[in-house]
Design goal:
The protein is mainly α. Helices cover 64% and strands 0% of the residues. The model has no long low-confidence stretch (mean pLDDT 83).
Length: 81
């Protein structure tokens, strides 16, 4: 018998653990993609799993000027005036 089945006890428990891990990882991937498209580092998604910090990050993200917005405000010829 493989060690992970002996450690978890049954295949049902293994399925529950895999399901719980996928439920925790999926939002991180989504938040990482959102942060990357806005022009931020996708590793900021890890802050979204910390209670309290996630609310502050949500407010900061919602009301700050994103790097991708700053890039689109620059004219094509490179002059800023």
């Amino acid at each position: 018998m493989p060690f992970y089945i002996a450690m978890l006890g049954s295949p049902i428990e293994l399925a529950l653990v895999v399901g719980a891990l996928s439920v925790m990882v999926a939002p991180l991937l989504c938040f990482g993609s959102i942060f990357r498209k806005a022009g931020y580092n996708s590793w900021l998604a890890l802050l979204m799993v910390i209670p309290g910090v996630n609310f502050v990050m949500f407010l900061w993200f919602a009301f700050s000027t994103w790097p991708s917005e700053r890039e689109s405000a620059i004219p094509e010829n490179g002059s800023a005036g």
